[in-house]
Write a structure and sequence with these properties.
Blueprint lengths: L3 E2 L18 E3 L4 E3 L15 H5 L6 E2 L17 H9 L9
Organism: Aestuariirhabdus litorea
GO molecular function: 4 iron, 4 sulfur cluster binding; metal ion binding
Protein name: Ferredoxin
């Protein structure tokens, strides 16, 4: 299995130079991971370096397509409150 990058990638370049397998490259609209090269850093690091540095929730996906940083995991903002903020509703209306 290898990681992949979703359309949530913001092209911040943070992951590009950290990949020991040179599996990450710049694509047309976002960075791309070459599945044949990606080893998830096995044999190089204890943790995948791209996942360690990526600042965007939902940008990196595991081999099963699950986000390595699901919504709320980096910001601490629950996904329900984020939706409310995006829709312009007052968050206080959701609080108990």
């Amino acid at each position: 299995m290898s990681f992949s990058i979703s359309d949530r990638c913001v092209n911040c370049y943070a992951c590009l130079d950290l990949c020991p397998s040179n599996a990450i490259s710049q694509g047309v609209s976002q960075f791309h991971i070459d599945s044949l090269r990606c080893t998830e850093c096995a044999g190089h690091f204890a943790d995948p370096q791209c996942a360690s540095i990526c600042p965007v929730e939902g940008a990196l996906l595991d081999g099963e397509g699950q986000a390595l940083h699901p919504p709320g995991s980096l910001t601490g903002i629950p996904p329900t409150l984020r939706v409310v903020a995006m829709e312009g509703q007052p968050a206080a209306s959701l609080l108990p």
